[in-house]
From TrEMBL:
GO cellular component, as recorded: mitochondrial matrix
Protein name: Citrate synthase
Any one biological process term the GO annotation gives: tricarboxylic acid cycle
Stored NCBIfam families: cit_synth_euk, PRK09569.1
PROSITE patterns: CITRATE_SYNTHASE
Keywords noted in UniProt: Acyltransferase, Transferase
Family: Belongs to the citrate synthase family.
GO molecular function, one term: acyltransferase activity, acyl groups converted into alkyl on transfer
Top-level taxonomic group: Eukaryota
PANTHER family: CITRATE SYNTHASE, CITRATE SYNTHASE, MITOCHONDRIAL
Pfam families noted in UniProt: Citrate_synt (PF00285)
Active site: 272, 318, 373
Organism: Laccaria bicolor (strain S238N-H82 / ATCC MYA-4686) (Bicoloured deceiver)
Amino acid sequence: SVSLKERLAELIPAEIENVKATRAEHGKKAFGPVVVDQLYGGMRGLPALIWDGSVLDAEEGIRFRGKTIPECQALLPKAPGGSEPLPEALFWLLVTGEVPTQEQVTELSKDWAARSAIPEFVEEILDRCPPTLHPMSQFSLAVTALNHDSAFAKAYQAGVSKKEYWGPTFEDSMDLIAKLPNIAGRIYRNVFGQGKLPAIDPSKDYSHNLATLLGFGENHGFVELLRLYLTIHSDHEGGNVSAHTGKLVGSALSDPFLAYGAALNGLAGPLHGLANQEVLIWLRKMQAKIGEDASDEAVKEYIWSTLKAGQVVPGYGHAVLRKTDPRYTAQREFALKHLPEDKLFKLVGQIYNLVPDILLEAGKAKNPWPNVDAHSGVLLTYYGLDQMQFYTVLFGVSRAFGVAAQLIWDRALGAPLERPKSYSTAAIQKIFKDK
Ligand code: AMX
């Protein structure tokens, strides 16, 4: 079928059996030790969630349904005349585990275009936000407000059976993704004074439409960048702050708009998605201080001054990864192809040669290598999108793909309310007192 929903309906019964069998065979087995440090240490490394779209290996990086980023770039359908994968295709892969055909992807582009309009009152909410309100706060407000028309909330009120949860969750998830370009475009134009929002063109793909709404629709390089950007930022397994928040809030049967609004508030933190904005601010400050073609010595000194001021080097380090993020590498390759001589790109390359040794010498960070955010802002800036406060909104458009795919499966498989156990320090002391 070319319909994602029909294909999903075919896959769900077998997956329910697959989960049953996995639990019957492995359900009572211990899976990794829990030590007290993990309770205090942000649950690092604690196996605690099921997330089907992607799994992150510390050395290798992310695989979407078992496929690396280069494999996705090779296998997923592209736009006519384009060479980057279409995020529509990545969504199909995340949801079904299957590489879609060109026809299935085209159908999805059309479906999203048809669902893309946002209610007038949401437009008004955005138009009334002061331009000084951070774009991520505006984004989360608008997404939360979409819950007004949630199919899931309505079905739940009407007494829908548990077995049917996934259907309205699917509809809400598709609506959510489809409406994000109009929300992001409106925020961008309102905040940065870029004039009236054009209409979505149903004959164009999702990224092309988003580029048009941002005012870059005629720029082929930017459109290609968005296709790559939306593909690689979509999912990074389930434990990161945005993905986990979406899953957690969804587990209370809050609809996908409420769940994703909450996820966006997590993505807006500087240790998570806001890092792409922070990287650009940091690079600009560095250039202002030491000039554009600074020596390695001057750059090193600037990096040390950041650390000595008790700040983090944005774009470096990761809670799980222990190597250069393949999402960084994919963006570096894009830059080598499209903007090899760009000054800011060269600075990012220079920093890449210097930061890891410094972080190792400083001796705290477990991973001295760059993550996805070290690179994205430079590419956007090159094409003229230099309003860095907006960068995390683009991350947020993309991350909806991964969170939505999991929300659909969580409701299809009857995932329970999340409720881990917490302890007080006094309780821990008591437990181990006589041991
Ligand atoms: N610069 C300076 N210090 C760093 C650092 C960096 N880039 N990365 C880690 N450290 C420090 C930590 O702050 C911590 O210091 P502390 O002991 O004084 O609290 C110590 O090293 C150990 O931290 P860790 O175990 O290596 O990392 P973590 O799992 O606790 O945190 C992360 C991971 C990403 C928050 C951290 O590396 C960081 O702050 N990086 C900079 C911000 C950033 O780029 N975030 C984006 C991550 C990707 C994303 O989510 N989009």
